[in-house]
Amino acid sequence: MPALKRLLRARLARRCSAAFCLFWAACGAAGGVFFFLAHGGVLLSGRCTDEQSHRILARLCLDYRKGALTGDLCEDLCVAQKLIYKRCLYYDRGKKVIQADWRGRPVILKSKNEIFSSYHHLGFLEEMEPQGIPEAELLLMVALEIKNVLGLELPNNTVVPLWTKGRGPHWKAQLASMWSLLQQEEYIYFSVLQDFSKHVLRVIGSCGHFYAVEYLTAGHTWQKTLFSVEDAVGVSFSGIQSKAKAITEIAISFLDMVKHFDNDFSHRLHLCDIKPENFAIRSDLTVVAIDVDMAFFEPKMRDILEQNCTGDEDCNFFDCFSKCDLRSRKCGAERANNNLQVICEKIFRPWFSPNFMGSAVSFPLQLQLQKAVQDCAEASTKDTGHHQSHSSHSLSELYHLLRASQNELQKSGSYPHQIHQ
Ligand SMILES: Nc1ncnc2c1ncn2[C@@H]1O[C@H](COP(=O)(O)OP(=O)(O)O)[C@@H](O)[C@H]1O
Ligand SMILES: [Mg+2]
Predict the structure, then answer these.
(1) Which residue's alpha carbon is at the smallest distance from atom 10 of ligand 1?
(2) Which residue ranges does the record assign to the FAM69 N-terminal domain (predicted)?
(3) How confident is the model at residue 419 (pLDDT cuts 50, 70, 90)?
(4) Mean pLDDT of the chain, nearest integer
(5) Which member of 16, 78, 242, 277 lies 3.0 to 4.6 Å from 41 by CB, making a disulfide possible if both were Cys?
(6) Could you tell me the fold of the domain covering 238-411?
(7) pLDDT surpassing 90 at residue 309
(8) Minimum-distance ligand 1 atom for the alpha carbon of 214
(9) 123: buried, middle or exposed (CB in 10 Å: 19+, 13-18, 0-12)?
(10) What residues sit around ligand 2, an ion, with C-beta below 5 angstroms?
(11) pTM of structure
(12) Domain map of the chain by residue range?
């Protein structure tokens, strides 16, 4: 299906270097290569520099002053100096991710592309005065774009968080800016899910093609506790027991997120790029998905997976895969693994190392937890016919064991009061 191939190409292009993509093209879409691209691809491109990032923001402000773009944060960024650059967090070929300080509050600025003009522009803006275009027609255009990205029919009010309000003197720049944001799948996902989920990033505002989201404590593979709890909560977590308590709460929040993405929307939400760096925690230790470039609702997931194949390895899409039906030479449309299984495999398993909670939680309980995580991670390699029921068993078992850990910690009197302020 050409549209899907385009989607795949576009997303891969942002995650791998040109040379490596050529290598990939030559090799074909082998599963192992997909995996390597998702996780090793970024290693091949360099980290951003302050100079580069200053240049990007200077260009943004130049376009703002020329009247080409606008947004509620432009004045603070380009004139009042109340949105101030701090550091950059992106890889060269990835999307631009910049940390800034907005009126004393840390925020993150994100954009898929560096320059405003590299987004498709609305042709009619050049040809006619946008004031003359009926609002209903513009709204329809936005609704179609959202539908196209999410692969879903949504109620009319879904457009509201993405719709630019008020036909001011800068209406043309407003429309052009909104259109650049609508070309960023991640912005659409965050905006649409704002009021429905505490597990996605809050959008704070925008300037042109850059949107600002809340700054949170992101995960890191090298961090023993995965997230720096001290950074998130703002107090010292010196005791092993306070750490164990925080780890338990974060792990429970991961399970809440899995349950929520599986059940609480009209369609299941699949996460296909699961790694510590793509999640963060708020100060109340809620887990938040901060990179949803590879998140898809069920109908879109089915379209992506249903490709021609000669073996199972052709049916892998990053962390989401299905099986190849060798008779019809088509990958199954239904995902064969699920969010919980990948979280167990890539987040819980390395995190819950032997005796990871020290003496704070009894050894037999930690052992049971590790075994449950192992079992959950291996679910999809077992009989796939039963993996859904196996997974719901894993989910309840993990909830049960993590709550048992909380009870042990509470009994031993080590429940830190700092966490819930
Ligand atoms: N809201 C945020 N708060 C704190 N750090 C963030 C936030 N968003 C992104 N980051 C950091 O920037 C990195 C890159 O952002 P991400 O959206 O994952 O971009 P990419 O698509 O290039 O992987 C993340 O791994 C994380 O370390
Ligand atoms: Mg990422």
Answers:
(1) 218
(2) 13-166
(3) very low
(4) 85
(5) 16
(6) Transferase(Phosphotransferase); domain 1 (1.10.510)
(7) yes
(8) 1
(9) exposed
(10) 278, 291
(11) 0.87
(12) 2-44, 50-215, 238-411
